[in-house]
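Hi V.,

You were right to ask for the full record rather than a summary. Here it is.
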Amino acid sequence: MRTPRTRTTAFTRVAALAVLLLALPAGVRAADVKIGYIDSAKIFQDFRLAQDAQASFDRQVQGWRSEAAEKQKAVDQLRAELRDQGPILSAIRRQEREEALQRAISDYEKFVQDVWGPQGKAAQENERATQDIVSQIRSSVERIAGDQGLDLVLDAASGFIIYADKSLDLTAAVLQDLTTRNAGTAPH
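Predicted structure:
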C-alpha cells in the first residue's frame, strides 16, 4: 500500500527521469543512448571499505544511544523521586527537585537534538563516513561508463528502474574496480 508520501516520491522520481530524458538532444534520445545501471545498495553492502565505515558509524551511534539512555534514566529517576517523595517534601525541597528534573529533561532533550536533529552529530558523522566512499564509487562508475561509451548510468537503489536487462548492470564491474583500486579490501 502506498502512502501519499510514497506516491509523491514516486511521482517526483518519474518527473525527474522525464526531465532528464527530455534534456537529451533530439538525435540522442532513442536508440542512440547507451545506458547502464548500478545498485548502490549492493555496492555499499559488499564493498569492504563501506562495511568498515558502517561498522564504525554503528559503534558511534551505539555510544550515543547508551548516553541518551543514561540521561533518560536520570530523568525517570528524578521523576519517580518527585512523585514518591513530593507529598512529604517541604515546598523549598520540592521546588529544588522540580528544578533538577527540569534541568535533566532539558539536558536530555538538548542531547537528543544535538545528536539526532537535522544537523546533528549523527547526520554529520554519516556524511563524513560515507563521503570518501561515495566519491570512490562515483569515480569508478565514471571510469567504467567512459570505457564502455555509456551516456547515462542510473542507480537501481534510487527506485527509477522498473526493469532493465541484466547485461546493463555495472554493479559487479564497479565492485571489481573499487576492489582493485583499494588493494586488500575485497568484497564479501
